[in-house]
Amino acid sequence: MLKNEPGGVVTCAAAREWSPSRRTHALVFSDPDRTVAAVRRLQQAGFVVVDVYSPFPIHGLEDVLGLRPTRLGVATLVAGAIGGIVALWFQIWVHTVDWPLDIGGKDDLALPGLIPVTFELTVLAAALATVFAFLWRRGLFPRLSGAPRALPHPRVTDDRFAVLVDERNAGFDPRAFRAIGRELEPEEIVEGWRVE
Amino acid sequence: MAMTETLRPIDTASPTAADGPLITGSPTFTSITQDISAPLERRAGGAWWVAFLFALGLLGTGFWLVIDTMRTGIGLWGLNRTVGWGFAITNFVFWVGIGHAGTAISAILLLLRQRFRTSIARAAEAMTIFAVICAGVFPLIHMGRPWLAMWVFPYPNGRGSLWLNFRSPLLWDVFAIGTYFTVSLLFWYVGLVPDLATVRDRASGLRRRIYGWLSLGWNGSTRTWQRYEKACLLLAGLATPLVVSVHTVVSFDFATSVIPGWHTTIFPPYFVVGALFSGFAMVMTLLIITRRVLRLEAFITLKHLDAMAKIILATGSLVGVAYGTELFMAWYSGNPYERFTFFNRAFGPYAWAYWLMVFCNVIVPQIFWSAKARRSIAVLFTASIFVNVGMWFERFNIVVTSLHRDFLPSSWSHYAPSWVEVGILLGSFGLFFTCYLLFVRLAPVISYHEVKHTLAEQRSGDHDHAQE
Question: Using CA atoms, how far apart are residues B299 and A61, in angstroms rounded to an integer?
Answer without folding.
Answer: 27
